[in-house]
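quick one, 256 residues, struct below
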Amino acid sequence: MSAIVEFREARYSVTRPQGSSDILRELSFTVAAGETLVLLGRSGSGKTTALKMINSLLTPTSGDVLVEGKRTAEWDPIRLRRKIGYVIQETGLFPHFTVAENIGLVPRLEGWDEGRIRARVGELLEQMGLPSHEFAGRYPRELSGGQRQRVGVARALAADPPVLLFDEPFGALDPVTRLDLQKQFRALRNALHKTAVFVTHDVREALMLGTRVGLMRNGRLELVATPAEFLHSENDEARAFLAGLDWKMEADGPSQ
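---
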């Protein structure tokens, strides 16, 4: 299966008054067509930095990042970003645009006719469980956090991009809404077979949503494994995450 996203010994460094420091170090991995790679790691591990290198929000200090076989440095940044759906924790919806206008933004920039845009917006709202007749004309301020996040996912899917990026999109939601959206994301993943890179620090979310999990620590990729392989890994960082999962499941269980 061909690689849609590829990192080849990508390094990202920043210069500070005390000297240069590496955020990412010789990062190498591939994401095949139709798979969801979840980058799991503690705060500061470099996972969001890696995500931003895919859509050229950040440029590697050395090494390469490729999308569809082409180095990001060779892409026109605007064209690249329009080929990539991007969902962040706070959705990034334009507050002065209606739901329909937010979802239809990239298709409109791509020159779609208005009839096609309306049909696509309606289709996506139905997929997200937000009936078009009820939600298309609303503004983001009139939605709950979970509804805004659904609209953010719909906007990312609007122009049918080949790659989707998710930067801790459900992290600010309450546990019930978060679980509901995780289940919806998994159903969409299975139905649409999109190529996705998903960033989280939640091991339960990583195991639930990823076809593979890439474990990051201190700017390096420690492990890439299927969820089943991750559960049985002897890697010490993986064991640390799983210990936290065991503790949480015990704490959430019925009191004795």
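Residues 89-161 form one domain.
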